[in-house]
Amino acid sequence: MKESFVSSLYKMIFMKRRKKYLLELINRMSFRDNAKSSDESVSFKAYREAETLKNRDNIQMLIEIVNFHKSFDELNVRKGAYFILSKLLKKHPDSDSLQFLINQLYKESDKYAISSLLDFISDLEKSVVMDIEPIIQLTRNDNWQIRHSAI
Predict the structure, then answer these.
(1) What is the DSSP string of the chain?
(2) pLDDT (tens digit, 9 = 90+) per residue, 76-113?
(3) Could you state, in order of their start, the residue ranges of all structural domains in the chain?
(4) With 80 as the cut, is the pLDDT of residue 59 above it?
(5) Which pLDDT value is given to residue 87?
């Protein structure tokens, strides 16, 4: 009983640290600095770091982050989470998580977020039974950037 409690406590602490790390990484991804070249920037390095993540457990954590950060002011948090999520789903395909990304297309209103999300989704394997209706609808969007990414 005592071991179970201690184990649960360690797991909770570990998950809290992982979430904090992911949020700090996402924050660095959207950081704008005065670097002499883009490959020296904080943002560039953070994106490269995000591409190296491998832990499958981060997928659910990132979905929780997206669901928690819903306001327009938190758009950069969602965009960073979408990027990391797409890179992880390339390494660890998961149809439910991919469907989550596709469904987010209905929830985003920023044309750059939608376009980026469509580009991320395009790199991922989709099953034949997956609901891609949100993508199909966006092929008829008035904005050419969204339309192009949806195609």
Answers:
(1) -HHHHHHHHHHHHHHHHHHHHHHHHHHHHT-----SSGGGSHHHHHHHHHHT---THHHHHHHHHHHH--SGGGHHHHHHHHHHHHHHHHHS--HHHHHHHHHHHHH---HHHHHHHHHHHHTS---TTS--HHHHHHTT-SSHHHHHHH-
(2) 999 999 999 999 999 999 999 999 999 999 999 999 99
(3) 2-150
(4) yes
(5) 98
pTM of the model: 0.90
Gap between the Cα atoms of 59 and 82, Å rounded? 10
Q: In angstroms, what CA-CA distances link 28 with 46, 57, 74, 119, 121?
A: 6, 21, 14, 21, 23
